[in-house]
């Protein structure tokens, strides 16, 4: 239904913008002129990021709204399909931890998708990119982002109808708003799962380092593939290491293979991002790493569903806070005792 709607609209290159809010569709249809003006003609200085699917630009509308505009690459049948999938799925989902569709433009050779602007950009920019040196991601923020992204996946896997498999969970697809709330984004590779279907066999899409083995080798995709990718993302969040590292001699090592021997030897402190120093909760770190290793189990049937992942992460944070309060109270009692003895 949605795909037919915007294909019909796509012939209207300069149609007047019309709001669909309150009607069948909760987004706006922008004009090309408006988005060109908002992004300063897609100027290089407005570029926020670039991927295989397209380039994202910062924009400001005539009303003063800050937006992000994804401009798809040269039009092909593949690009058209990915645009249709992303717009259709974004039109379906509404959750605090998913990036919502604000509007789009489809006309001629241009396909543009409009979102709310995320002031803190993507998770990857804080772990490996231009904002990494600022160390804005302290330990509590990392846990908040991990739980938020997990809750977004819970909605896709368990609450959306039909269920949705994202297929490209990675650090660059987790955006951060002004309060560092996680927003899972980029649904160009997503799959809708019919009721009663446990898995699909499809062409492999996604990013090396995050792909579940059964998906990378045989194209078998299920919710468990997203769980695997999320496990890799968890390790990346706590360690700030990339999913695949290049070692001397051209050898490549995946993050799971790096962390496993450290866990076996009990060297938990070596897993944490060195930039954090000792400013992280050791019990929470253990919990997150163990959850990540369960998520990246080689057998998909042994991976926990995202509902369980969220509960495990939240319980780890709760226990960490409880221990923190106990320690603080103990220290306060000791201080009082010292004062009394004086």
TrEMBL record:
Residues 42-317 form the Protein kinase domain. Keywords: ATP-binding, Kinase, Nucleotide-binding, Serine/threonine-protein kinase, Transferase. SUPFAM superfamilies: Protein kinase-like (PK-like). The keyword Zinc does not apply. ATP binds at residue 70. Belongs to the protein kinase superfamily. This is PTI1-like tyrosine-protein kinase At3g15890. It comes from Phoenix dactylifera.
């Amino acid at each position: 239904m949605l795909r037919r709607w915007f294909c019909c609209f796509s012939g209207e290159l300069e149609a007047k913008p019309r709001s669909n809010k309150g009607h069948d569709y909760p987004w706006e249809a922008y004009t090309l002129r408006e988005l060109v003006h908002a992004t300063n003609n897609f100027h290089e200085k407005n570029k926020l990021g670039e991927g295989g699917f397209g380039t994202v630009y910062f924009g400001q509308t005539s009303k003063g709204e800050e937006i992000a505009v994804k401009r798809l690459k040269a039009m092909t049948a593949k690009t058209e399909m990915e645009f249709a999938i992303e717009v259709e799925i974004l039109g379906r989902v509404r959750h605090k931890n998913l990036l919502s569709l604000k509007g789009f433009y489809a006309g001629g050779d241009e396909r543009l998708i409009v979102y709310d602007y995320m002031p803190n950009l993507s998770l990857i920019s804080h772990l490996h990119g231009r904002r990494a040196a600022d160390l804005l991601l302290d330990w509590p923020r990392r846990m908040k982002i991990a739980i938020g992204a997990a809750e977004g996946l819970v909605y896709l896997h368990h609450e959306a109808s039909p269920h949705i498999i994202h297929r490209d969970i990675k650090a660059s697809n987790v955006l951060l708003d002004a309060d560092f709330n996680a927003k899972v984004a980029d649904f160009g590779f997503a799959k809708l799962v019919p009721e009663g279907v446990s898995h699909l066999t499809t062409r492999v899409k996604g990013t090396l380092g995050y792909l579940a083995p059964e998906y990378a080798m045989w194209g078998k995709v299920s919710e468990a593939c997203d769980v695997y990718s999320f496990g890799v993302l968890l390790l990346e969040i706590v360690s700030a290491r990339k999913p695949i590292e290049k070692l001397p001699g051209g050898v490549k090592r995946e993050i799971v293979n790096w962390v496993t021997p450290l866990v076996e030897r009990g060297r938990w402190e070596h897993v944490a991002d060195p930039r954090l120093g000792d400013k992280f909760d050791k019990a929470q770190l253990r919990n997150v790493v163990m959850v990540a290793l369960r998520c990246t189990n080689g057998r998909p049937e042994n991976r926990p569903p995202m509902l369980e992942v969220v509960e495990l992460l939240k319980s780890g944070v709760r226990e960490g806070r409880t221990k923190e309060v106990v320690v603080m109270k103990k220290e306060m009692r000791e201080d009082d005792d010292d004062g009394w003895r004086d």
